[in-house]
Amino acid sequence: MPKAPAQPRRLEPAATPRETAERWIPWLLVAAVVLSMGSVVTHSFTSVDDTSTLVLNERMNPPRLTSDGVLWYWANRHLSLYVPVTQMVWAALAAATYVPTADENEAHLDPHVFHGASLFFHAISTLFAYGLLRRLLRRPW
Question: Please, are residues 125 and 32 in contact by the beta-carbon 8 Å criterion?
């Protein structure tokens, strides 16, 4: 059976400046978040709210999936905040990083994991905000 003649390859047209911007802006936004906040993953827990939210919180040390453990957050406020989804994420991270012996700061949890998760969610939130603005303004920039 004879081979069919090869079809000439079609060249893709060059991207317009608008298409280039639409492709690179999200990456630049994530880079800005990581560059401005990335060093947080090297920090310890702070005394501002980490101590009461995580380090000394009996529901997180160790986390328990019971009505007096992390499920308590679905029916109650903690520190005047009702944020059960956030508390569930913290509980999952606490379960993954909990160690029986506390460190010199009385923490049984790894602060680097919590700060890394915070950085990740800030980057994702930046992309959501950009996507929303892009839709509302109908332009990438």
Answer: no
